[in-house]
Amino acid sequence: MDLTRLRVAVRPHADDPHRAERPEFSVPYLPDGCPAAEPRWSPIDGVYSPHQGTVCPDCLPRWRRDADISAPYPNLLPSGNPLVILLEPAPTPARGVSLDLATCLDEAGFTRAGWLPLPGLADTFVWDHPADQTRVILHAFGVEFHLRHPGTGQRFHTHLGRRFSPARLRHLLAAGGYRPDTDSVPHPAPPPEGWALDSDETALLITIADHPDAARGSLVLDAALAEALHAGWITAVAMPDGSLVFAFRSQR
Fold first, then answer.
1. Whole-angstrom distance, CA of residue 18 vs CA of residue 95
2. Deepest of 128, 204, 207, 220, by most Cβ within 10 A of its Cβ?
């Protein structure tokens, strides 16, 4: 059974009260029926379940209860593209989508975004990168990243919980070669094992002494570091062992 030969477009009914949050999307059409299991299904499209992320003659009547389903058409998507895709973007994120998260991903090139019903996941909002065949998924348990290593092009999958820092988000995107930070001031490159922190995050860690070297500090040193961070004279990086590394910011 070929998952990539035919597709159908799914357009929620116009009288759906939530139509603005349910854009048109496309899924594979399987004329021989949806299999009970599909080992080729990728986590980038959710968790496979028959008749959930695919359409066949048996489940077509059920799909038509909530949406208009197009006639099957040949698949023209490039190899490696997600199988469940948006055909129209949502006008604006809504209903629990962080504006900061949406802005950061948009700056990184994930410009096709909207609520997309991925099988096995509830309330999924996705951001797709049109050029890279990569995807970020927001769902009830956090944020999933389906990215590629910039050097090899090999896919990798990672996850953030429901609460995370902006620096951690930027660090994960940087691992995929994306640089959403549009700050024009040059920043020192962080050590390969660490991730950059903003001034507020670093000042908080210093203030509450939540790092391994806290016992060797002092109120005077902590105050000087906080002042330098907020003035933009230095930057900070969090290392895997919890320690903080500081560097002078480059001057023009």
1. 11
2. 128
In this structure, the strands spanning 125-129 and 244-248 are unpaired
* Chain centroid offset of residue 243 CA: 27
pTM comes to 0.69
Q: How far apart are CA 96 and CA 112, in angstroms?
A: 18
Positive or negative torsion for Cα 154, 155, 161, 163: positive
Locate the domains of the chain by residue range.
6-86, 99-175, 195-248
Roughly what angle, to the nearest 10 degrees, separates helices 219-231 and 199-207?
170
User: Per-residue pLDDT tens for 156-201?
Assistant: 888 888 888 787 888 888 888 887 754 433 445 555 566 666 666 6
CA distance 17 to 146: 31
Cα 77 from Cα 65, distance rounded (Å): 27
Instruction: Provide the percentage of residues in the chain whose pLDDT is more than 90.
Output: 31
Which residue(s) pair with 28 in the sheet?
7
Can you count the helices (H) and strands (E) in the chain?
Answer: 5, 13
